[in-house]
Amino acid sequence: MLPVERQQQILTWIEEEGALKVSEASRRLGVSEMTVYRDIQPLTEQGKILKTSNGLARVSLPTVRADHCVYCGKGTSSRFAVQIIRADHGVEQACCAHCGLLRYGDAKEDVAQVICRDYLADTTIGARSASFLIGADVRLNCCDPQVLVFGSRKDAERFRAGFGGELYGFDEAIQAVQEEMDGGACCRG
Ligand SMILES: [Zn+2]
Ligand SMILES: [Zn+2]
What we know:
Order of helices and strands: HEHHEEEEHEEEEHEH
Helix content: 25-40%
Strand order of the largest sheet: 5-4-6-7
Number of helices: 6
Shape: elongated
Distance between the termini: 68 Å
Oligomer: single chain
Number of strands: 10
Radius of gyration: 22 Å
Strand content: 15-25%
Largest sheet: 4 strands, antiparallel
Bound molecules: zinc ion
Structural class: alpha+beta
């Protein structure tokens, strides 16, 4: 059996059985535990399986908590929901760009990508290249200060001309939301 065939077989077993001991994999495949460890290394690096104290386990589906915002716990069913792709390939959901930005601000090193939806076009866009309009005069019925996301700066500027607010790039937007939150309620000095 080639290493890729053993990998496929190991994946299938873990998929079917939920978990698998390394010794058991070694016995079934007729190879040493060393070889099993070598075989699974790319699988663990790609986040396809987990190495646990007990052996190998299925990566729990990232959608488990996906219906609640990772930051504030609100539902994430609206079209303003933001997806945060972690460096370890897990996916988190935020209810809106407000929480998406704050979450990113908290966990920068662990985040590979932030995916938003364009407020007007309803298309998927990467947050780093998006424009953020904060404090516009519309109701999203989510978190304050409200953050609207636009893929095109031009659209964002046109929208701001009608509805007001302040326009930011990604990093500035994180700062702006953080500052407004810090300045709010309990901590105003
Ligand atoms: Zn939230
Ligand atoms: Zn929200």
